[in-house]
Structure formats: C-alpha cells, structure tokens
C-alpha cells in the first residue's frame, strides 16, 4: 500500500474468442498493461503457452472463449487463463519424449514461473502462474 492507503496491485481482465489470433491479441494487451515491467517476457511466453493449450484441448478452441486475468503487484505478477471446459483431463505436466512436436507448454511454464497451478471451475479449468521479482 501507498502511504495514502491506496493499493499498488493492479488488476485487469480480458475475454477473447477462442481463435488463434487471440493469442497475439493477448500478448499485445499484456505488453500494454505491464509496459516496461522486467517480468513481461516470462509472462508473455507463459500466457501464450496456456492460451494455446486452451485453444487446442478445450471447447474454447471450438467456438468458445478464454478469460485472461492479470494481477500485477510490485513483487509478483499472477496471470490466470480460464477455458470453457470440454477437455478429457485437467492440464498436467507430462514428458513428451524427444521426438514429439507437442506437449511442452506446461514444461515451459514450469521452468519460467515461480509457481503455477490448475483449479477446476465449472465447466472448465483455470490455469494460473506467478512470475516473481520486483519492478
């Protein structure tokens, strides 16, 4: 909190259609929101991976939508990606093997984020990550 009692955390959300071009739209929106924040690159890579997963594996990519929320504070940025459901299972880490082209998205998030997780929200999932470090 500032001395005047106002919070330094900022929140913004964006609802996008479940189409591939939305990934670029969200990256631009995130860049505008975080501006010169040193955590921008890690956040952009991670949100791109989570959006791609939502498009590829859930009803979000079959005519649905994706909800993105960003909570930015001096010590951390938390990003949430909520899909429309319809996947066969919850998102999870897996070993894609050396020759598979897909399956590395959550491995990338796991490597770049300080923490991440999955929450069941009816009818889909909210996958979130936190990138730590100060402005």
UniProtKB/TrEMBL annotation:
Ranges for the Histidine kinase/HSP90-like ATPase domain?
22-130
Q: One of this protein's Pfam families, by short name?
A: HATPase_c_2
Q: Which InterPro entries match?
A: Anti-sigma-factor_SerPK, HATPase_C_sf, HATPase_dom
Tell me, what is one Gene Ontology molecular-function annotation carried by this entry? ATP binding
Q: Write the record's keywords in alphabetical order, separated by commas.
A: ATP-binding, Kinase, Nucleotide-binding, Serine/threonine-protein kinase, Transferase
Q: What name appears for this protein in its UniProt entry? A: ATP-binding protein
The species is: Actinomadura vinacea
């Amino acid at each position: 909190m500032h001395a005047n009692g106002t919070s330094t955390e900022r929140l913004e959300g964006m609802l996008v259609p479940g189409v591939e071009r939305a990934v670029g739209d969200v990256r631009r929106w995130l860049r505008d929101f975080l501006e010169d924040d040193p955590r921008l690159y890690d956040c952009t890579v991670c949100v791109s991976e989570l959006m791609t997963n939502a498009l590829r594996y859930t009803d979000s990519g079959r005519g649905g939508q994706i909800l993105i929320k960003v909570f930015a504070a001096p010590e951390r940025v938390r990003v949430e990606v909520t899909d429309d459901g319809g996947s066969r299972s919850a998102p999870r880490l897996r070993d894609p093997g050396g020759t598979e082209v897909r399956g590395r998205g959550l491995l990338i998030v796991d490597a770049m984020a300080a923490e991440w997780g999955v929450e069941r929200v009816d009818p889909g999932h909210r996958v979130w990550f936190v990138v730590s470090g100060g402005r």
